[in-house]
Amino acid sequence: MTSLLLGKVTALESVRGANPGHHRAEGGISEDGKIDIFHATVEFHNSIYMVLGNLANVVSKNRGSFKNPSTGSVSKFLEWLASHEQHKFAVNNCIRPSKAFRTIVNHPQDHYTYNWETLTNGRSSIYVMLKGLGTPNQDKPTDSNTYLEGVGWHLPSPEECLTTIFVLDVISWVFEGVGYALMSKGAFSNQDWYKHKRTAFDDYLRDDVDAVAFEFRRAVPSEFDDVLFDGVSVFD
Fold it and tell me: Residues 92-114: what's their mean pLDDT?
């Protein structure tokens, strides 16, 4: 699982590295470069979905190691993960949006007609934004954002390196929980041992909250950007 995930995020970063990191008319990324980044981004989110499915299967086969697991689908598995405080931030901000991104791209006939474009965040390399028409109350995909005008939606690819960190943390949590329960013959749940383990949120995010907030601002420009970043432009 980890090799698949790391391979896809490395491939995406390699494609980014082979192209200009901006959209300016002079020397900016080409149309072919944008398409390459789009395809690499889709492959990355497909790998996330595959890993989540495999993790749900591992948890399902080791139900005694966990507290009330739900593994009937990837969606239910994510709901169960998010019920654990240490995973709520990761699921809501990266992992669930990754699943939504993958669903929209792979199943437009069942969900939403979309278009896509590439954008540049001031602290992030070029990334992909899905977008489409619809109203917030009936046609907007789950985990997408609404344009300021109130019509239409957009869903940026969640920051891929952060998403990778979080999924690797979940993988560690699952396998450590299984191993601990097996060693102790089920005497403890992973909730017992995990509360003593630092998470990716503790190790990475809390040390640089401002930088992470900047990276998460993958959205259309708004007044929020001017207030939060004091006039710093986050878009080319």
Answer: 85
